[in-house]
Amino acid sequence: MAGVIIAASILAASGAIARETPRLTVSANGRYLLAGGKPFFWQGDTAWLLLAKLNRDETERYLAAREAQGFNVIQVMMLHRPDMANPVAGPALENGDLARPRVTPGNDPAKPGEYDYWDHLDWVFDRAAAHGIYIALVPVWGDFADFRLFNPETAPIIGRFVAERYRNKPNLIWVNGGDRYGELSPLAWNRLGETIRASDPVHLMTYHPAGRASSSWAFHRAAWLDFNMYQSGHQDYAQDQQLHARGEDNWVYTADDLSRRPRKPTIDGEPSYENIPHGLDRAPEPRWTAADVRRYAWWSVMAGAFGHTYGENSVMQFFVRGTKANAYWPELSWQEALDAPGARQMHHLKDLILSRPFLDRIPDQSLITDSGPRYARVAASRGRSYAIAYTWTGRPFHVKMGKISGGRVRASWFDPRTGRFTPIGTFANRGVRRFTPPGRPSPGNDWALVLDDARGLK
């Protein structure tokens, strides 16, 4: 049966590409992305080692699962380390030389061994497009920069090769950088961005920084950077000892990025992953749960992010039981982890945001009169005719009414775990009103209050 499904999908792929992955652009207000001129909410997944670990049947299984869960972007490493190779297609580079991609004659997708790494990546792009998924491609991971293999001389070579090869893929998003501070190798990263942009002026590009940093810090004004990406990181409040520590408050990066000029959209491209230890390499520490990954998503989007990237420990490294893990003590196989609770719940946020007018939504903390610090934060945003307020603990809070249109508002609770609405009632749109979420206040009893102009959405 699986073979039949795969074959049918391949036959349909050519027609699905243009229909399901239209060109992405930045909205006129500099806050959001559009796909073919329509609102696009980035629901991303970190599939970092997909090219290094999966064969074609496994890749198809992964893409089908993520499509079914509502994901529309996957973040993938093109070159992780000099020995980067696909288990079927072989190595990407000649002797690990960044200036010498290994390109061989022949490209028969039905015969393993008769297509090379780059032929395989061609196929992955097309299969992702058939599932309505964009690939946010990181050309060069930071390991190459650490070993000085990525530098101002090699950056234009690999940049020109990859841009010329993939610029015609409709579902491409460029992600310059690779988990490194841009300030450490600014000339090389700039040259990579400039080279790609010169060959491909169409597809959007960002930069993936190191933990607790944003692309805006080094490259906000770079002509090749279309939107910002930050990595809020994997440490909890107690573990974050860095200068200007922000702990788990990923919304601060969103607010900072959107305060800059010219305005560019922003997104948390790497928050704490589900099922990964707090602090990454601290095995005895607790692991981040579905409740935590929901909080990161809602906090950043309420602050104005145009979407969110989710991650799961076993999936991002495609861990297989009985083999050596890349890092961070995964406990599930990647196939099991595909169905982690957080992965199944991510689309509820996207569905809610897309159900209301998209482009006029702005963050507005003035809606909440008694928001607190850290986990007590009640994160709020609104459009002209609606407002959303998210509490992670489910504690009661007060809302300043009159911030949206209409003499009366219709209120309801939205469950981030299930996507279900529970009506509250209709109220006068004035004064300050107290709202009490369902259940007993506790970490992870999260709810979103949704207020709509009672006359209907406008």
Automatic annotation (TrEMBL):
Residues 27-359 form the Apiosidase-like catalytic domain. One of its GO terms (molecular function) is hydrolase activity. Residues 362-452 form the Putative collagen-binding domain. Keywords: Hydrolase. Signal peptide: none annotated. The keyword Cell division does not apply. Gene3D superfamilies: Glycosidases. It comes from the Bacteria. InterPro entries: Apiosidase-like_cat_dom, Collagen-bd_put, GH. This is Glycoside hydrolase family 140 protein. It comes from Novosphingobium flavum.
